[in-house]
Every structure is written in C-alpha cells, then in structure tokens.
Amino acid sequence: GAGRHLWLGTSWKMTKTLAEARAYVSDLHREPVPDGVELFVLPPLTALHAVLDARPDGSVLRVGAQNGHWAQDGPVTGEVSMRQLRDAGAEIVEIGHSDRRAQFGETDQVVAAKVTAALDQHLVPLVCVGEPWSVRASGRAAAHVGEQVRTALSGVAPHDLARVLVTYEPVWAIGDSGRAAAPGHIVGVLDRVRSVVDELAPGVGLRGLLYGGSVTAANAGALLDLDDLDGLFVGRAAWTADGLAALLRTC
Ligand code: PEP
C-alpha cells in the first residue's frame, strides 16, 4: 500500500552454499525495491559475510542472522553471541523460530533472554511466535500467542519495544503444510499481540508486526491488504532471487 512501511524478508534456513548465496544477492539486485519497503535476508552464518559483500553500492538490503546466544561470550561450544553477530555485520536477528523451539527446546524464557541480549547489542530482534494446530483447533490461538509475546518481551524496557519486530507464524502454516492462515484468523491474533504490547508500554508500539507461514506471490497481496500487518516473513517462496523479486512486486 502507498505511504506505508512494509517489511519483506526471508530466512534461508539451512540452505545455500557461498556460490549460491552470492548469485542470489546479485540476481536480487536486478529488481527495484519500492519506496517504503524494508527488505531483508537472513542467510546461514557461513554466508553472512558473502551476502554483505555481494551487495552493490547503495543497496538497501538488510542482512541478519537466524539465531544468536544470550551470553556475551564464554564456553558455549557451537553458539554465536549477539555481540559477535553485530561485529560480523548483522543488523537483524531472528529469535524463537518454531524450528528452534521444536528441535532445540527453546522456551519463551530463552526467547526473552535472547531478545534483551539482541537489544543490548543494538540488533533488531525479529521475534517469532505462533500456535500449534492443537491450540488453533481449540480456539485459543490469540490467547496463546498473546502470552508468548508477553513473556518474550518481558525484559524489554518500554521505550525499546519500538525497536522490536514480531512475526506471527502459526506452526501449522509453516513449511510443507502449504496452508497459509486465513486473513480473518491473522487479524484476530494480531489484534491480541498489539493489545499485549500496549499493556506493556502504552502508546509505544512495535517497530513492526509481520506474518509468516506459506506466503507466496499469489497470496501476498491479500495479506498485505490487512491494515494491521506491517510485512511478510517468507521461507520457501523466497529461496530463489526470482521468488523474492516476485514478492517485492506485490508490495
Ligand atoms: C518460516 O519458516 O518462517 C516460514 C515462513 O516458512 P514458509 O514460508 O516456507 O512456510
């Protein structure tokens, strides 16, 4: 929509070699980025530097990471701190994706610790929340997601909420299900998220509230028509540069 700030980003998850990462970034830059669109890519850490380096002069592409540890440094084998991410050139850090909650046991408390650590290091946290199908089926999606947001943001100073991105990603809509949530369902959950944020810090508001889960170039337009939505977070449909370019054309 005209005059609106829209976030459009993708996580590559555990895909892409360095050569594939560089080719994607160079192909992507053939597509103009409309005014007001905040475009971002979250590559695997192995490709962070290659992606930063492949951006032509004047690029508006923002780059970030898919995870970061809450501690500043120390004996945490295999992990990378928010400070190290910032130092390596990341601007955004995704926190609490459902893959990490399901496969690595991340709880809302872990997510909260990572959010404050990210803000301390001047990163933009992109906090993922969303209900599993069982919760959706019992009609408690908004309540569930509202409590996830309340816990995830519990350590954030009120004025710092304006630095936080939240993305609503119903677990059942992500990945192979291929089934995006209906606009009416999304609106109900986003309303709850906004009211929780307003309770935490009246009048401050988030930096942005996004939706993710089986977004494609075919359904993006209808989703972006939702007044409550500040953008889209995309997996598979943006794993090619052409895919992300097609999504850009819907903004
Ligand atoms: C995701 O995993 O965050 C996601 C949005 O995936 P997809 O678009 O592939 O459903």
TrEMBL record:
Enzyme Commission code(s) on record: 5.3.1.1
- Gene Ontology CC terms: cytosol
Instruction: Identify the keywords attached in UniProt to this record, alphabetized.
Output: Cytoplasm, Gluconeogenesis, Glycolysis, Isomerase
Q: Name one GO molecular function term.
A: triose-phosphate isomerase activity
Q: Which reaction does it catalyse?
A: D-glyceraldehyde 3-phosphate = dihydroxyacetone phosphate
> Which top EC class is given?
isomerase
Listed under GO biological process in this entry are: gluconeogenesis; glyceraldehyde-3-phosphate biosynthetic process; glycerol catabolic process; glycolytic process
Tell me if Electron transport is a UniProt keyword of this record. no
Q: In which pathway does it act?
A: Carbohydrate degradation; glycolysis; D-glyceraldehyde 3-phosphate from glycerone phosphate: step 1/1; Carbohydrate biosynthesis; gluconeogenesis
Keyword Phosphoprotein among UniProt keywords: no
The subcellular location is: Cytoplasm
UniProt family annotation: Belongs to the triosephosphate isomerase family.
Subunit-level organization: Homodimer.
- Protein name (record): Triosephosphate isomerase
From which source organism is this entry?
Microlunatus sagamiharensis
Q: Which residues of the full protein are shown?
A: 24 to 274 of 314
